[in-house]
């Protein structure tokens, strides 16, 4: 364990640099009630990943999907608490109370390499989220146009044209220096998102009553890694746990509030994924909203979700901007670097054919490392001299599990994208 004291890489660095937690917290009050902490946990975790859960349930079977979802939720909660306990331990040893983010924790424990590891995972995961947003928006708009494959202009399909139509607007949004100016749009987007997902679940119930399709209970071990990847993606939000605990008024109750939040989100995700598969069975598509058709309600729901993700894109890109500008531009605002990242993300989105497959890829690779491997590793390093063999074995098992899932899950997801398995 390394405690760095030099000005260029110590408390000066931690205080002066904007951190990866900045985008979602903004200028929040320094202390939050339990209710506000619960709300912030909800906002930090619930995102686009939930839209791929019904298709994941189709692949894994509804019971296997639920078991995997709740198992991942528990393990994610456990690793979040490992980060909190590790930060508290370090602060009790050093009296240094400026470890406010995941990156700061990595820096305090392992020096520059620790921060680099966290920064790399943050950039890759956040960029992956933004890629999935563009895939969802372009695929949904192409579906609503009733033409997903026929070239329209210069040989480009509707999906490609819609993606590039978003490009100049995203360049404009990403150019905004502070997220404060985007706050009204973010609030509007969150309200639209909640309403749209509620309508989707209500529609699922009515469709199930009319259809009652045949459902699969277990999809077999061959889809285990696929389901794990989608579930990990859905619960990704570990980068926010330390900032949220920092601003919590009642820190002794934070673990209970976090557990309640994760439990509630697990139930919501289980309902959304289960009802989606329950309604459409083997006809469930990789983006569940496309199953709603092109009726008035279906169109409004899909447009609402597109609006939500369109305005969420610059918020999710902010951690990427912060890391890139800190490392390459001395933490100074750099317009060309921001535009370059949007271009790269747009090009990647063009190459990925399936929304849910990409969720599995991101979840199986960087999200597993960020959510499981690094927290367990940091906890083991800090507590190694006082933890019993059971805790040591448990941390080690999480690290090994994370690496195995990262390697095998990434390979499986890449192969699924390159050569998709036919489904009924």
UniProtKB/TrEMBL annotation:
The keyword Transport applies. Residues 32-414 form the Amino acid transporter transmembrane domain. One of its GO terms (molecular function) is L-amino acid transmembrane transporter activity. The chain crosses the membrane at residues 38-57, 63-85, 122-144, 156-176, 221-242, 254-280, 292-313, 333-352, 358-380, 392-414. It holds the Pfam family Aa_trans. GO terms for cellular component: vacuolar membrane. InterPro entries: AA_transpt_TM. It is a multi-pass membrane protein. Keywords: Amino-acid transport, Membrane, Transmembrane, Transmembrane helix, Transport. PANTHER family: AMINO ACID TRANSPORTER (PTHR22950), AMINO ACID TRANSPORTER AVT3A (PTHR22950:SF674). This is Amino acid transporter transmembrane domain-containing protein. It comes from Psophocarpus tetragonolobus. The lineage of its organism: Eukaryota, Viridiplantae, Streptophyta, Embryophyta, Tracheophyta.
